[in-house]
Structures are given as C-alpha cells and as structure tokens.
Amino acid sequence: MIMKRVLVVWLLAAAVVVTAVVGVTVTYDHRALVIDGKRRVLVSGSIHYPRSTPDMWPDLIQKSKDGGLDVIETYVFWNLHEPVKNQYDFEGRKDLVKFIKLVADAGLYVHLRIGPYVCAEWNYGGFPLWLHFIPGIKLRTDNEPFEAEMKRFTAKIVGMMKDEKLYASQGGPIILSQIENEYGNIDTSYGSGAPKYIKWAASMATSLDTGVPWVMCQQKDAPDPTIDTCNGFYCDGYKPNAANKPTMWTENWTGWFLSFGGAVPYRPVEDIAFAVARFYQRGGTFQNYYMYHGGTNFGRTTGGPFIATSYDYDAPLDEYGAPRQPKWGHLQELHKAIKLCEEAMVATDPKNMSLGHNAEAHVYQTSSTCAAYLANIDTQNDATVNFNGNSYKLPAWSVSILPDCKNVVFNTAKINSMATIRKFVATNVGNVLSASKAISTEWSYVSEPVGISSSGAFKKPGLLEQINTTADQSDYLWYSISANVKDDETQTTLHVKSLGHVLHVFINDQLKGSAIGNPITKDFPITLKSGKNKLDLLSLTVGLQNYGAFFDLAGAGITGPVQLVGLKNGSTVDLSSQEWTYQVGLKGDKLGLNTGGSSLWVSGYPKGQPLTWYKTNFDAPSGDNPIAIDFTGMGKGEAWVNGQSIGRYWPAYIAPTSGCSDCSYKGAYNSNKCLKNCGKPSQTLYHVPRSWLKPSGNLLVLFEEMGGDPTQIAFATQELQSLCSHVSQSHPISMEAWSQEKSTKKSKSEPRVSLECPHPNQVISSIKFASFGTPQGKCGSFSHGECQSTDALSILQKACIGSRSCNVGVSTATFGDPCIGVVKSLAVEASCA
What we know:
Helix content: 10-25%
Number of helices: 14
Number of domains: 5
Number of strands: 44
Shape: globular
Strand content: 25-35%
CATH superfamily of the largest domain: Glycosidases
Structural class: alpha+beta
CATH topology of the largest domain: TIM Barrel
CATH class of the largest domain: Alpha Beta
C-alpha cells in the first residue's frame, strides 16, 4: 500500500512537470520578430477591452482568430484603472488580466500597449486628471514628478502581468509591449526635454525586465533596443531607425473615428488590402489593424472634444461584434495568402524589379521556395505585365499574391468573399404601442433645477476655467449671476466667450439659446425684466482633449468676457469680473437619479422640456441579436440602463449636407475621402450590451439637456437581411484550390461563390437573386445584365436552400454559356432563417 501511494505521488508530480508552462524567447532581427528562434510573419488587430463587455470578449477573440489574426493588440487605460491616486479598479470591463488570459486560451499572442499615454480618442488621452493637480508636474516631458507617476503605473501593470505569468518569457501570450505613443508627432514642441524624456522612458521600460521587446510607435529616435514602428493609412515605405530592427506597423487605420456633428467615415476594403499587401510586399513582417473591433465609448470615456459614443471605426468586426462583410472575409483571404508566402518571406529579403510604368514585383526566393507580390500602384489604369515567363493582369491600385511565383491566389481589388446586409430593426418590448415601436408609454420624470441647487455651491469673483474647477467629475458646471436693469433696458444682447464645448443660456429659468464650439463666441438676443434678473449659464464638456502637444493644458468653460451689450444708453456692462456662483454637476447626480433613486419622480413625460430626467421600465428584446436604442426624437444627454451608462447621446447634432459622394478605393485614402450619412444625425443608435439586461424589469434613465420626446425612442435589434456574393470568372482561385492543385498536380480550378449563414442554427431559406452573365449593382440592388443564364436561379436554389452553406463554381460548365467570348460573373443574394 505504501509503495502504491508513493507511485501515485510520483505520477502526480510527473504530471505537474509535464503540464508546466514553458517560457519562450522573443527577440528580433532585421527581418522579423523571432519567437523561440523562428522568424514570424504576424498579423495583429486592436481590440480595446473596456470598449466591449466581458461576455463579448471570447466571441470577439475567436472571430479575430478565424479572420486570420495571430496577435491581439490593446492599450492599457490609466484613468480607467486608477481614477483616484493609489485606488485601482480592474473589475468588469476593466479586467485586463481576464482579457489577456482569454486571448491566450484562443492560442493568440498579445501586444500590450501600456503607454501610459494612449490617445485612442479616449478622455484626456488615458491620463487620470489628478495628474494635472500634482505640484510642479509637466506631462510627457523630462519632468521628475511626471516620470515618477508614469514609472509607478507602468511598473504596476508590468508587475500584474508578471504575477500572472503572462509574458511570453514566462509561458504567457504577451510578445510585445509599448511605451509612450506617437510622441514623435509632437515632440519638437517640448524642446530639449523631449529627447531626454524619450531616453528615460525607453530605459525605464527595459529596466522592468519583461523578457519581450518594447516598441515606440512614430518615434524615429527610439533608443536601442526599443523598436520604432509606423502608424498610418500606409506604411509600406517605412524604414526603422537601425539596420537590425524589423519593419513593423502598429496602427493600420481601418476607417476613422466618428465625431458628433460629422458624417460617418468608412474605408473601402480594397484599399486596406492593398495597403497591407504592399507592406508585406516591401519587407514588413508585423502589421496591426487599428481597429479590428472598435466597440463603444461607454460612460464618459470619449475624448475629443466631440468624439461620438460609437467607436465602430468601420472595423472588420462592427461595434456590436458582427463580421462586417465583405471587409472581414476579404482580409481573411488576404491573411491566408500572406501566410502561404511566410516560409519564403522569413528566409530572405525581397528583391525588387520593375514591371513597367507604376508596376513592380517583389520576390522572396531561396533555393527551395519562391513567393512574389506584383503591384500596380497606378490610380487609374489597369496593367498587363510579364513576370517569370507568364502574363498577369493587374487592376489599378492592387497587389496580386503568388505564393509559388506562378499562380495568383489573391488580388486585393477582387473581392471573392461574401457580403452581408445587416440592419437595425425596431422591436416591441414590454407594454409598448406596436404602431410606434416606442420603448414605453409609461414614463416618470424629474425636472432638474435651473442654476444653483446644491449646498456644495460656492462663490468666486471672476470666471473660472471649467476643468480646473470640476476636475472632470462631471460634464456640467453652472455659472450663475444676477443683473439689475432699468425699465427701459429690457432688450439687450448677452455676449459670451467660452473655451467650449457646449453652452446653454438660461434667463430667469428659461432656455434662451445654446452654442457649440471649441472655442465659442456668441451673442444671444435676450429680454430682461425690470429689476433683478437671474442669469444661469450651463457649460458642458464633451470629452476632454486627447491629442496634441500640451493637450493636457487645453481648457474649457466660460473664461469671458460675459457682457450685456447694447443697452438703451449705448453702454456695455461687463459681468466677467463680478462675483459668480458656481455649482459642479447636477442635483440629479447627487440624488442618484441615474439609478432610479429618489422619491421625486412624477408620472408623465413633458416633451421639449430642457433639463429633464426621464425613467421607464422595460423588458429585454427577445433573442440573442445585438441591441441598440434609437434616440431619434431626443436632443442631447446621457442614458443609463440598470445604472450603467451607455454613453452620451446627441441625435440633434446633424452632419453637414455636403461631403458625401461615391468613393473609389483607388488612390490614397484620407479620413475625409469616404463619408456617408451627410445631412443626418451623426449617431442615432446606441449599444446596449445584452449582459447588462435582465429578461424583464429593466430600468432606463435619461438626462435630457435640450428637450426631446422620450416616447419616440425605441429598441432595435441587429438583423441579418441578406447574404451576397459577386464573383467573376477572372477572380483568382481559392487558396484551398491552389493548395489542392499544388499537392495533386491537377489542372487549374474555377473561382467559386460561397455563402454561409452566420448562426449555426440557421439555413439558407431563399435565393432572392441569382444571375450568371453580366449582372450589375451591389448587394441589395443587383440587376440582370444583357447577358444572363436562364438556369442560374434554379441552380442556386437547388445547391443552397436548406443548407447552412453552399459553394458553387463560377463556370460555363455549371451554368452554360449565355454569351460566348464575354467574361462572365455570378451574382447571388440569399436570406437565412
């Protein structure tokens, strides 16, 4: 018996040894990151853990892996984790360790961008505002108080990662860390302090001994051994600052952020694929999509000013986590093609050769492998080129990938992946009116007092800058004063100058006007009564500055002058230096109205009334599709669901009517090139995570500043409307077909149309459109061309209906030849149920 027990103990000890996690070495050379002695070509994507919810993380990570990513990149948000000095929060959406462990569980690597300045369109660039009040501090320069705080927080995060054994050197997923962020864009403004600061930051980071390389993006003077990296829409021409460093791209912007008052930016996937392929073509080996999933700026986390609550970023995974097709699928195919070239790419440097005007090839060749990228960088004209004894047609602004230096398996301008149409559809919940789709007809409200209502109010002579006064504990700061006028001086103009961002003017408790700007200068025609008048100015911030030299010093609020202009005797009364009464925040905040507290609620829903709190109860929409609230009918404010803020809403802010037009992927992209939704609200739909909801008895609270109609707002769920594919006979064959041909030496296969319902319990229920020949249009608006097969619809119905997925060859062997000598294509639109 004793011998048996000894044997059991030995076996258990042996099992522990067998399953122990073994660390790997991560280094680099001039070609690539070197992981466990092997150079790697890596594809990365940014997902910011607090911009989604923990229940969303596993699916986002898995879809990233399915999309061909090797690495997940995330910032660490200092102000989120240390809102008060030495008081840390890593719970819920802030659980950084949990997020990284989930990435590891999926078999992916992590690039941890500690910063701790992050920019990221995040409030105050990620810095906690309490830094601003440390005596003698100057941010992001050679300043001892700042460097002490930055080192303390950076060491805190590194220590957490080490404690959890999350660095690759410990067997974890973290293969890279970043210190600072895009400082090289603005460092000249900091004079002689900048180079000293950068040397200090690099030295401080490397001294923390993570066992993995550190990077600095947009920092050409990054000291060894820190790697300098590129950010931008294109980085194929980037060269690191030392011959022994690899070419790395830490931010490839997949779109652009949305601003309140702006149109919605987007970036065509053909251009993104072109930029990525060009980067790897010309020697790059690490590329990261910013963003791969953008998510949502919940609460008051948006920077700015005026950054919207949605941080969708036109990313491959949309704000709600659904694949944005064909962007996700086209990039997935691109990643497969690049990986087919990896063996050759890591073995040697590329050799460049001209293929004619604006056309070139880069070839990776050894004695045993050969891979080539053929590029046509012309913005208008297609090209036919000769390479390696063969002829290739290259569309304008495209790259073809040849993993064997012979067969094209991917062209960046030819989309072979499925497209989808997803729409938000209003849904009935609770006791709603089915005709209106409104959330509820049973509302309660509380009127927020105009002006000073708090015992915490205080008086000061002169006008106070807002951020120094509120410490960003609230968007709101009241400036209140009284003015006495004579009987004959009732018509006047109130002149107000403010640093921004929003201003509401109340005269004798009535809203007389509003202004938006950064800064604001505006004249408000007002009518005063004889005698004493109450003037209340409500100043608002809409996200603090997050970018630029000395962004931390950008002020807000009413700094003056504030004047009564055009009195009857022609005089001007300057109120600026008089004694003002101030109140930080709202009375409703202190009463806890955002969680439904207080006994002040009254049944009803006054419409068009500014400064009003509303609440109602609702049942969660059925199913598991993503949920949003459509705030059409409201002005501006903030909303809470079961006490959690879904962010600022502002549907009253309309984008300019001009600037939107058809957008070609050809030619260099910029953030204003491709815009949509001109003349419409910048954002009407606001994400409500399902994990925040109960089946019934949920609480919705709104604070409306400007006046709106809460009975118009409605729940909507994201529904898949259509699956589409449009593939030409001239498209490259699939990677799978190429691999099969290579192994079996069969003749060339045809391109194929593939459709697949996204949900495993769905099947293709109908074929809405099918045409083989010369179909026109795009998903949702296909039409037949002059050339069309009469059998296309029946063939697709037979092949697809009743199955979750189908795959049909694009060939005359399948459909016949309705027009001999013409290059034909197959267009299909289907629905799932």
